[in-house]
Amino acid sequence: MVLSRFWLAIFISSIAFVVVSLFTGNSYTIDFILNGKKDDPILISEKYLHQIPVFIKDSIKKAPDETMVINRDTLNPDTTYVYKSKTVKIYTGKQKSDGLLPTCKNSLLDLIIPLIAYLAFFCGLMQLLIDSGAAEKLAKKLSPVFTKIFPSVPKNHESISYMTLNFAANFLGLDSAATPFGLKAMESLQEINPDKDRASDAQIMFLCLHAAGLTLIPTSIIGYRAAENASNPADVMLPCIITSFIGTIAAFLIVGIRQKVNFKSASLLVGLMSIIAAIVGLLFYINRLDLIGKNFFTSNLSGLMLVVIIAFTLIFSFIHEKKFIDKNTTIFDAFVSGANNGLQTGVKIFPYVLGMLVAISFFRNSGLFEIISDGISFVFSHIGVSKQITDSLPVAMLRPFSSGGSRGFMIDSMKMYGVDSFTARLSCIFQCSAETTFYVIAVYFGSIKVKNTRYTLSTMLLVDFICVLAAILVASWFF
Question: 3-state class of 94 per DSSP?
Answer without folding.
Answer: strand
